Task: inverse folding
């Protein structure tokens, strides 16, 4: 029997590990603030929260269904910290590359204590098992829909049908140095009043004037903080599309459209449906012969320059890409961050529904198959051992995708999707 007031070395070790974990987080925050990358850290933290909400979906539905849940962890590898509450252990592991919930008896190969068999996943009814395995993706879809409502009601959707005023909304960065706009001293929020003393009242005229003067210094008269500032900017000779046209790396501030909460729910539902369709088509296209050949060309670095319409080709995002794009989204503003998180949640939610083990969709497919094969009073249980070769093949494909994506993230970094 264990004394409930025990202050054993194990308890002291747990406290020490918790202190180390808090110290690691504090140092990470301090470094992020010192290097100016705190916004990136916030977006990465949102992704980690997204992962844990996915697992929370499985956890809550399993608990509500009476199943025994023994672990709820962030990360993989060595444990950094853990605490037990009742029959469940909660904790953090060293590699924050995902999370997991351990539910007793997820398949018929697992050895389960006879006392826990009635509370195992495999002993539950078809509706309960299906609800548990679909809860993770459902959580992603709920997050995406909630963020869409925020975008429509609070942040606003850019309305490109309205001609933008000549106000700089963003300034792009280029490889190897500052863009002409940065070098010339232009800033986000500057209202362009005149170019070479010629008054220009709309963005299209500003754009056309810049394009017509490649390599020629232009005097920008801008309104900044209630006063006029004159700056000299020399456009690049070639634009990102490879055309001989002036380019300085600025985009206009586009008017945004906001709607009330009821309309936001309606428009979010429509946008959510469109995003689901686009994501499914994109995932299916990746595994088409033509796209696999294109992906191989990227890996071999033999692919010709990508088009401006598709700057990143067809590829999955590696953990390195996720951090890099998180920073780019943070630099581009709240709307970019929300759009990034919406797309990420929908993408992960759809991918998890692929009907192959070890993905959630594989467990759902098995549950449906068992339900079809079952008869009244004679539940059918699939022999998971026969599916192991397919499971190993799927895991192999996932490993290839992760490794190849990591390779591309260093040899052919993704273009900034927010420029």
Result:
């Amino acid at each position: 029997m264990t004394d409930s007031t025990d202050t054993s070395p194990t308890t002291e070790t747990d406290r020490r590990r918790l202190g180390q974990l808090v110290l690691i987080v504090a140092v990470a925050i301090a470094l992020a603030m010192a290097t100016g990358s705190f916004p990136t850290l916030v977006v990465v933290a949102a992704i980690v929260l997204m992962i844990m909400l996915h697992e929370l979906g499985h956890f809550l539905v399993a608990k509500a269904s009476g199943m025994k849940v023994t672990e709820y962890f962030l990360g993989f590898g060595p444990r950094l910290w853990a605490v037990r509450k009742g029959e469940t252990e909660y904790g953090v592991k060293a590699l924050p590359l995902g999370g997991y919930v351990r539910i007793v008896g997820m398949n018929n190969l697992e050895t389960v204590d006879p006392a826990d068999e009635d509370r195992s996943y495999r002993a539950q009814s078809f509706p309960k098992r299906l609800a548990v395995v679909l809860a993770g993706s459902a959580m992603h879809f709920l997050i995406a829909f909630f963020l869409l409502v925020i975008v429509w009601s609070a942040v606003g959707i850019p309305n490109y049908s309205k001609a933008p005023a000549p106000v700089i909304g963003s300034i792009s960065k280029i490889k190897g140095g500052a863009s002409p706009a940065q070098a010339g001293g232009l800033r986000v929020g500057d209202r362009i009043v005149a170019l070479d003393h010629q008054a220009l009242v709309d963005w299209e005229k500003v754009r056309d004037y810049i394009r017509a003067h490649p390599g020629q210094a232009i005097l920008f008269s801008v309104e900044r903080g209630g006063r006029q500032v004159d700056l000299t900017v020399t456009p690049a000779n070639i634009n990102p599309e490879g055309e001989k046209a002036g380019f300085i790396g600025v985009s206009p501030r586009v008017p945004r459209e906001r709607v009330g909460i009821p309309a936001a729910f309606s428009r979010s539902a429509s946008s959510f449906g469109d995003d689901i369709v686009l994501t499914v088509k994109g995932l299916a296209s990746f595994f088409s012969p033509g796209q696999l050949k294109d992906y191989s060309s990227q890996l071999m670095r033999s692919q010709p320059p990508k088009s401006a319409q598709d700057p990143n080709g067809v590829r999955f995002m590696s953990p390195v890409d996720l951090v890099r794009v998180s920073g780019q989204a943070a630099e581009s503003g709240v709307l970019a961050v929300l759009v990034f998180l919406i797309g990420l949640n929908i993408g992960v939610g759809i991918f998890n529904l692929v009907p192959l083990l070890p993905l959630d969709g594989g467990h759902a497919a098995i549950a449906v198959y068992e339900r079809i094969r079952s008869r009244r009073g004679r539940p059918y249980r699939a022999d998971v051992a026969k599916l192991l070769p397919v499971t190993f093949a799927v895991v192999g494909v996932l490993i290839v995708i992760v490794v190849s994506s990591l390779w591309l993230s260093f040899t052919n970094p993704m273009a900034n999707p927010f420029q």
User: Anything to note?
Assistant: Residues 171 and 182 are 7 Å apart (CA to CA). The domain at 168-253 is CATH 2.30.42.10 (Pdz3 Domain). The mean pLDDT is 85.
